Amino acid sequence: MKYNFDEVINRVDTQCVKYDLRNNVFGNPDVIPMWVADMDFRTPDFIRDAVIERAKGDVYGYTFREDSYYQAVADWIHRRHGWDVKKEWISYTPGVVCAFNMAVMGLTKENDEVIIQPPVYPPFFHAVESHGRKLVLNPLIETENGFVMDYELLEKQAKTAKMLILSNPHNPVGRSWRREELQKLGEICMRNNVLVFSDEIHCDLVLPGFKHTSFASICEEFAQHSITAHAASKTFNIAGMATSSIIVPNENLRKQFVDYVHNTEIDLGNIFGKIATKTAMEKGEEWLQELLQYIKGNIDYVVDFIGSELPKVKVHKAEATYMLWLDFSAYGLDNEALNHKMIFEAGLGLNNGKEFGKEGEQCLRMNLACPRSVVEKAMSKMKAAF
Length: 386
Description:
By secondary structure, the protein is α/β, with parallel strands linked by helices. The chain contains 15 helices and 15 strands.
C-alpha cells in the first residue's frame, strides 16, 4: 500500500473526544477507545497540505463556497455512485446531524410523526423528540443473514407520518441497502406523501463487494420527495472541519430548507472545511480505495476471531461503515453488567447498544477504523474477559 494505516498515532491531549474524554464517558481513562465514529488513521496528506497552505495566508476572514466546490462534490458523487447531481441542488450545513435537525424543524410541524428504524444512530431519536415531533419506531428485523426492513409495519405507519429519516448505509448494523430494498421503502413513502431524509454520510465507506445506492437516484419521484445528506467527514477523517453537503433536487423543497438554515445563521461555514472537502473530492480516490481494503481486513479479522474464539457473540459481517454490531445476549448479562464487564474487565470502550434504541440492549458497537495491532490487542482482551 502507498498509505500506512498500520501507523499508531498518539491522539491523547489533542482535545480529542475519543481519547481525552474516556474517563467522562466510561469512568475508566485507560480503555482502548473504539466508540465515537472517527478514525485513528492520519488524515490524508493531500488534505493536510491544502489546509496548511491556506493557513499560511494573512487573513482568515469571511469566505464563500465557490462554484468549483459544489462541482467537486457533484463530480465525486457521479464517479463513485453514478448519480448525476446538479451543483445548484447542493447546499451547506455544518454537519449531517445539524441537517436532519434543520429538516425536522423546518419541514415538519409540532406533533407531526417522524419514522426512524432502530437500532439506529442516537441523534435520530433526539432530532425528533427534542423538537416536539412524535417519534415512530420501525425497528429492523434480524434474520440469519443480517438485518432487513419491516415493510409491513411501515405500510401502516406511513399513513399518518410526515417524514422518515433513513440511515443509508445503516449505522450501526452496517447494511448497504440494495436498490430493491430502497425501492420498496420509497414506494410506501411516496404513496403516503412521506418525505424521506436520507443520511448517506457513510456512503463512501461501502466495502469491497458491495455497492451504494443513493435513495434519490432511483427515480425522479424519489428525487423530488427527498433530501440527501453527504459529507467527506467520516470518509477522510475530517469531522472536525464541520462541513456537509445537503442535496435537494426539488426547487421548492430546497428553498424551504435553505431558507430555514439561513435564518438560523449557521450557513456561512469555515475556510478550512470547504478546502478540506473540495480537496478530498478531487484527490481522494486512491487513498479511499486503500482505506476500504484495510477496513475490510479489520472486519474480516474480528468476525473470524469471534467465530473461533467467542462463538457466543452474534455478529453479521458489515457491508459498509467501519463499525461492527456485536450481540452479547447469549451471555445472559443485562445491559449494565455487559458494559461494566467490557469497560473494567476487558478494558475496552465500545458504544453502549442501548443508546441506539431498546433493540440495542445487550449489544455493543465497535469501531474498527484503527491499526490492525490495536484490533488484535482489543480482541485478545475481549477474549480474556469473556
